[in-house]
Amino acid sequence: DGGITQSPKYLFRKEGQNVTLSCEQNLNHDAMYWYRQDPGQGLRLIYYSQIVNDFQKGDIAEGYSVSREKKESFPLTVTSAQKNPTAFYLCASSIIGQGASEQYFGPGTRLTVT
Amino acid sequence: GQQLNQSPQSMFIQEGEDVSMNCTSSSIFNTWLWYKQDPGEGPVLLIALYKAGELTSNGRLTAQFGITRKDSFLNISASIPSDVGIYFCAGPSNQNAGGTSYGKLTFGQGTILTVHP
């Protein structure tokens, strides 16, 4: 089955620790994205990548870092500099090209920092 | 930048009722997407619209691409309890005039739907 996997589903960390969230896709999509969602809120773009070894900041990149060493993988690190890291994190992917704009989402990781 | 205004923000309905929600944009879109997010899960694409005036159905769901290209509508007929969730509209943030998309989407704030049995 093709799709996007995020692991783990729930993650707990102590304040001051960096934590890395995993995102893998086997859809052969060029682009990958990370969003943050707070309770009852919409989706805010953290980082996105349109090609391997390249990525751009989204609307709320401060306190986060990413890498794109492989087409299939786009891990997100929530650093200790992120002031309010507790949130639901969603990874997505899409193709890039004529008429294409549909993004497909993973199941999400709920991060709790205490 | 582009903004999408989605309304209503929330709806509380009885099972069996029909639902209507809409999304308006400050600029023209070439594509409209509608997603549903179940509680605690990632959004799932429901319907994609690519042409002004297009009307597309997916089971009990019907979506329309407004002829002005600045709005879209989603209707759910005969709602059932599993329709509960957040519905998002979205459109491409960086699609050029020729229709090539570079991937980014602008999302509406979402409509939270509650269905009472």
Quick structural gist:
The complex is a heterodimer of chains A (114) and B (117). Chain A is an all-beta fold and 114 residues long.
Sketch the topology of chain B as an H/E string, one letter per element. Answer: EEEEEEEEEEEE
Described by the principal axes of the CA atoms, the overall outline of chain A is: globular
Output the radius of gyration of chain A: 13 Å
Give a count of the beta strands of chain B, DSSP E runs of length 2 or more: 12
Let me know the largest β-sheet of chain A: 7 strands, mixed
Which spans of chain B of ≥5 residues are poorly predicted at pLDDT below 50? none
Q: Into which percentage range does the β-strand content of chain B fall?
A: over 45%
Terminal CA distance of chain A? 36 Å
Poorly predicted runs of chain A: none
Helix segment tally of chain B = 0
Assembly state here? Answer: heterodimer
Q: What pair of chains forms the biggest interface?
A: A-B, 30 and 30 residues
Percent in strands of chain A:
over 45%
Mean pLDDT of chain B: 91
Question: How much helix is in the residues of chain B?
Answer: under 10%
